[in-house]
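Appendix B, example 12.
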Amino acid sequence: MHNITGSFSVKHLSVAFGVSRGGYYRWRHRQTHPSQRQLDRERLDGLVAQAFATRKERSGAPGLTLDLADRGHRHNRKTVAASMRRQGLVAKAAKKFKATTDSEHDLPVALNLLVQDFKAEAPNQKWVCDITYLRTSEGWLYLAVVIDLFSRMVVGWSMDKRMKAKLVCDALQMALWRRRMPKGVVVHSDRGSQ
């Protein structure tokens, strides 16, 4: 960039560019003497960029805010988001995680006693079970739930890092204990091996 202030007076340049001379001199002073606010902003930008790189560019402002707080740097989520915008940091979409129920197994399969009738007249007549997965800051977790179809209330649940039969058994065990071992409950689930 060519410095034209040596060829023309600041007075003439400020008129030509439509800025005040005082504004120009304040701008020039800020270039060599940054304010405390500018220094704080640059420091935050560095911390955000480092945390973003550590998370392999997969975290947005909420996650980075928590990471920074863990390291003793408490900042508002909006402040972290503004820093990301200034730096052009955009989180990459997480890779698809696909975990489906294993329906291709050789285990015995129970009859479908509900036959799509998901209405119950009283508690503890019909329970349904399912497994889902949740992304957490520590990785993927599987959640098994047991729901009473009468109240639509979760009566049992279990969480684990692996989708094994124990996950479902623990959720069912919790439901049985919480509902004081009811008799005659129809328990319905998909036909996965778990």
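The CA atoms of residues 9 and 171 lie 80 Å apart. The mean pLDDT is 83.
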